[in-house]
Design brief:
With about 290 residues, the protein is mainly alpha-helical. It is built from 13 helices and no strands. Helix 1 runs antiparallel to helix 10 and helix 2 crosses helix 10.
Amino acid sequence: MNSFPSIKTISLTILLILIWAFSWPIYKLALPYTPPLLFAGLRTLLGGLLLTLFLLKQWRLIRWRENKFIYIVSSVLNVILFYGLQTVGLQYLPSGLFSVIVYLQPVLIGIMAWLWLGESMSLIKIIGLLIGFIGVITVSSGALSGHISIIGIVIALVTSLSWATGTVVVKKIGTNTNRMWLVAFQCLIGGFVLSGAGLLTEQSSHIVWSNPLYLTGLIYGAIVGIPLSWIIYYKLMNAGEVSKVASSTFLVPLLAVFIGTLVLHEPFTYALLVGLLFIAASIYLVNRSAA
């Protein structure tokens, strides 16, 4: 029988959900004042630099030769692809809808954890996966009628796949890696690559440095939205099964949609509501404990 989560675990989970839920509308508001790749790169790189300064006294825990592979893989999957695609994708879809599709990630993790980590797979989980697929189709139904960008839907799905793969890979081969330094290096490497790509393909002069919405997004991402959230996420992941940790994040898209509707006046349709319910039910079924 599984023990009830501790107060500390519950508190960290709630904090993580709030951080990620508020990230979507905050970044959405900042995007009109900055090129997307430069925004993703700068907030990630700045977050990595700040965390590195904080960790300098523990530099011996880096163990670069031993851990360089997981540092690089995590940087590619969890930062370069995840944040790069996320920032570009927010230009095509409402922040709430984009977050809903990205948070198909727990369902994908359920499959990957079964295949790669040996976590259980039951009939209930299979049914849950099918319900999740129906949920994504329902949420994405606007794209079929031309009301929602198909490009945005595809970017959101690839973003979700990248994040799910990165999570399972870190759990599989990163057990001996210091989690704080893992976050620092994935932010440094990923932020450097994204910033470089932004400088090559975008105009840095288009950044409106004086705009408070841009500064809020940059500072929020560099301190809270990226480094702090990943530290909490990896800490929770180390404490339990990957699929169970991922399942708790199903509240993020629900809250993000609510915030987007309330603050950004984004549309909230019946199809989106039904899709949200399907996805929430899917994630619950995929990750529920056997009786």
